[in-house]
Amino acid sequence: MKKLIFRKINKDTIGFFLVMSLTFGLIVWTLQAVNYLDYVTQDGHGLKTYFMYTLHNFPKIIHRIIPFVFFISLFFIITNYEFKNELLIFWTHGISKLKFVNNFILLSIFLLLFQIIVGCIVSPLFQFKARLFLKNSEINFFSSLIKEGKFINAVEGLTIFINNKNLDNSFSNIFIDDSSKSNTRMIYASKGVIVDEDNKKIFKLYSGKVINKDKSKINVFEFEQIDFSLSEYSTSTILVPKIQELSTTKILKCYLSFYHSKNNIFTEQSSNCEINSEKVINQELIKRLIKPFYIPLITIVCCFLVILPKNDSRYLKARRIIFLLAFSVLLISETTLRYLASSNFTVYVYLIFPCIFFLCAYIFLIKKIKNV
Questions:
Q1: Inter-helix orientation angle 344-371/278-285, to 10°
Q2: What is the Cα 120 distance to its own chain's centre?
Q3: Contact 173, 162 (CB under 8 A)
Q4: Which residues have C-beta within 8 Å of that of residue 3, sequence separation ≥ 6?
């Protein structure tokens, strides 16, 4: 009977947690997806690339909201059980409040491990794949980016200015600058149109001039029609993986290189793992490996709800205090993250704080339960 009772409350808690995670996750994902519209409207990527990129960022959102959603779920379930007198079923069947608390602590430990797995493996992997979608995608919406009287810098190393965009999707008075560090190249055309040939974007230009300047030499020639290929130009979107998109193994190697490498530079230069990124590395390791340890602390704070019954005059006040205290723990774990990653000492403080606080709160809760 006791197992069935615990199974029911665990099922209710996990079910509510999953529903809330999906709901909050979709809300945050939708709001974040709006911010990523720049990849289409400014950088010229296709809608498929945009959708796949935003979809692969969903595990990152879930990882970030797990502590908050679990706090809301646990607080709601315990409060709801109390108001429906369902907690009395536990007490009348000989289940002690300590066993009740230990059940939720065990559940929080499983959730802690789950968040570590999502943060260390799933989220970085999906974010890295999302970056690959941008890296391997073509600039499918280039023609839609071109507007009259506006400089277009959607691709790296290329600037285009269009004076007029016609109703037949052709362009008039076109200026193109694809200059490099070693030479200058500018093209003027009275008319042009973008077409697809062999799955490549070609800008067909008519009646114009090409100006080439190499050091002190200037060459000018006129043309009736030339094809300017856009496929050789890469997008201006940042394609190098960010720290949060790297695997945990690489980040740990980078972290260790700060103390064992002579030049303090990680061997994989493309990973941006340099001495000036030490703070970002610490923050990422804290988010993945240390921050989940605040989940049991939030759990033990919420379990203080079982001390007083709902008919006690102090219950409502105690519930407010417990809610604010648990929410403050969440707030501290989030807001202090950027400040506590500046040194190893502060990283250790961030890890030790929830452990010590948890032990003190657990001992205090046991005393309260025995005194009630």
A1: 20
A2: 13
A3: yes
A4: none
Q: Which residue has the tokens 């005059």?
A: 313
* β-pair type (171-177, 159-165): antiparallel
**DSSP readout, 297-346?**
HHHHHHGGGGSS-TTSTTHHHHHHHHHHHHHHHHHHHHHTTTTTTSSHHH
- Nearest partner of 224 among 254, 196, 191, judged by Cα: 191
Overall average pLDDT of the 193-198 stretch: 76
User: Given the DSSP bridges, would you call strands 150-152 and 183-197 parallel, antiparallel or unpaired?
Assistant: unpaired
Per DSSP bridges, beta strands 200-214 and 183-197 are antiparallel
Q: Is 6:101 a contact under the CB 8 Å cutoff?
A: no
pLDDT of residue 180: 65
Long-range contacts of 165-171 (CB under 8 A, 24+ apart): 169/143, 169/193, 169/194, 171/146
Position 210: which residue type? V
- 302-332 confidence digits (pLDDT tens): 999 999 888 888 999 999 999 999 999 999 8
Four-CA torsion 58, 64, 67, 72, nearest 10 degrees? -60
